[in-house]
Amino acid sequence: MCQSQNIKSCNGNPGGGSMSNRSNKAAALALAAAMIASSAAFAEGKQESAASAAKPVVLTVTYATGDPLTKETTHEIIERFQKANPGVKIQENLSVSTGAYLDSLKTMNAADMFPDFFECRDTPVFVRAEMLAPLPQELVPIFESPISIYGTVYTAPYSAAGPNGIMYDKKFFRENGLNENPKTYAEFIQLCEAIKAKGVAPLVAGISDIWHLGFWFGKYWVDNIGTKNPDWIADRYAGKVKFSDPDFAKGIQQMVDLFRKGYVEGGFMSTKESQCVSVLLAGKAAMYYCGTHVFTQIKEADPAFELGWFPVPDDAGNVKLMGGASSNGWALSAKAAQDPEKVKAFTAFIKFFFRQEQYAYFLQTTNGFPTTKEKMNYTVSGTMATVLDAFGKAPKSLNWNQGLGANEMPSTFRNWSYKKLQEAMLGQVSVADALKAMDAEWEVQSRDFNPSTLKKAALVPVATK
Predict the structure, then answer these.
(1) What is the pLDDT of residue 100?
(2) Same domain, 168 and 317
(3) Angle CA 224–367–376, to nearest 5
(4) Is the pLDDT of residue 439 over 70?
(5) Distance of CA 301 to the CA centre of its chain
(6) Based on the domain organization, do 277 and 425 belong to the same domain?
(7) pLDDT above 90: residue 363
């Protein structure tokens, strides 16, 4: 570049004998002005480039909101991530449906609002619809037992499946001489009778949220089917078993009897899961059967509440619990994976979420069960220690709708069945007729879905009446 002291040689008149001083000054001023304009343009270009580089990567996320505390904890970790990573903005488009979470996602997809990443609970459904990207390979080693679908890992599991059990007020039990440790299912029913005789509903259940029925359903499934024949669903496809068979029918009858005999607070069909803790704390019900994720919610709502927990044994006095690794977890959409910046941002979020500081906080707050190879250091309550002790000793099984491979159910069959069982709880149909209807519906749905042969299936919203 020509420097100001070399103007003469730059303007083509090295001798300069015929040019006046005024002409030299004018040329120098013109060149200086041009250089200033050029420098300004360059600086402006750098600013535009910097502004472009500073534009945040936007990720949309959806997760289930049925449990208020898990929702709040997840939101807080997202806020922490954004504060630590100002180049990424996460927009939370949350599920507000009281029905099936899967149906909410189907509706979002139909409206072209499917999130960049989300809490995935029906992983094979989305894999077959070709809507998921494989979990970035650098993330897979974070987890102790990542679950693969058709040979590929798609999700970052945030919590292993944990047990359900009875939460109760130890003070109420103590003052009324109630049994805090029933040894058989018959003793549990006797406990319900004793509480009912005192004018208090023994149990509260949030059946307005259709999926909440899965807590009690899972208890009888684990007792009678899951821990005895983990391939029962595969056998149902093969026609070897039916829902109307005695072992299955026994558990369903016991579950329905809880509701039909007045052991569950009468407003169960209009009660949401988010309201159950309030019913328990208000003394309108003495017990609440649910997962450990509500422990903190109870203690925060009423620190004076003496929280107790016990598992409900089976007829023979055996304690069997829900538990195990599952494919539920954070998943990246196939569409978002087409953008390298979104993949990079998603990867950064997953690493952040599962670091000691964040993940230990998540587990402690939600009383979850860790999935990482790294051991998380956090304090558990005495009640949670009781749960962990029982969990370590008990035979375990996942719920009926959590099976993979040959044990994967048609995606809408669970909720169809729960609605039919609600009718039985209300006395609108008998248990026998409800189970016959389940067998008939299975034949219809399994004609269009068989995990052994089905490879791809579009994700479409469920028709509503």
Answers:
(1) 73
(2) yes
(3) 115
(4) yes
(5) 23
(6) yes
(7) yes
Return the DSSP state at 409: P
User: What digits encode the pLDDT tens for the residues 25-49?
Assistant: 444 434 344 443 444 443 444 433 3
297 in Cβ contact with 277 (< 8 Å): yes
Q: What is the C-alpha separation between 404 and 416, in angstroms, rounded?
A: 19
Amino acid at 28: A
Question: Does 188 or 463 have the greater pLDDT score?
Answer: 188
What three-state secondary structure class fits 310? strand
279 and 422 fall within a common domain: yes
Q: Is residue 346 in some structural domain?
A: yes
- Quick one: pLDDT at residue 441? 98
Both tokens of 175, joined, read 């003052």
How far, in Å, CA of 404 to CA of 123, rounded? Answer: 9
How far, in Å, CA of 174 to CA of 189, rounded?
A: 18
Residue 321 phi, psi dihedral angles, 5° rounding: -130, 155
Greatest distance between any 2 Cα atoms in the chain = 120
Strands 164-169 and 396-397: unpaired
Which of 207, 274, 209 shows the shortest CA–CA distance to 72? 274
State how far the Cα of 353 lies from the Cα of 435, in Å rounded to an integer.
42
Domain that holds residue 231: 164-322+412-448
Residue 329 inside a domain? The answer is yes
Shared-domain flag, residues 428 and 306: yes
Q: What is the CATH number of the domain that holds 254?
A: 3.40.190.10
Q: Are residues 215 and 260 in the same domain?
A: yes
C-alpha atoms less than 13 angstroms from C-alpha of 3 in its C-beta half-sphere: 2
User: Is the distance from CB of 363 to CB of 159 less than 8 angstroms?
Assistant: yes
Q: Which residues contact 60 (CB under 8 A, 6 or more apart)?
A: 90, 91, 92, 93, 115, 116, 117
Question: What's the pLDDT score for residue 456?
Answer: 56
pLDDT of 150: 86
Could you tell me if 274 and 218 lie in one domain? yes
Residue 101, pLDDT score: 81
Query: Three-state DSSP class for 442?
Result: helix
- pLDDT band at residue 228 using 50, 70 and 90 as cut-offs: very high
Query: Is position 341 within any domain?
Result: yes
- For residue 14, pLDDT over 50 is answered with no
Q: How far is CA 107 from the centre of its chain?
A: 17
Does residue 231 fall inside a structural domain?
yes
Q: Which residues does residue 117 pair with via DSSP β-bridges, in sequence order?
A: 61, 332
> Among residues 382, 403, 420, which one ends one of the domains?
382
Together in a domain, 317 and 427: yes
- Tell me: do 177 and 71 sit in the same domain: no
Question: Residue 38 is encoded by which pair of tokens?
Answer: 């050029």
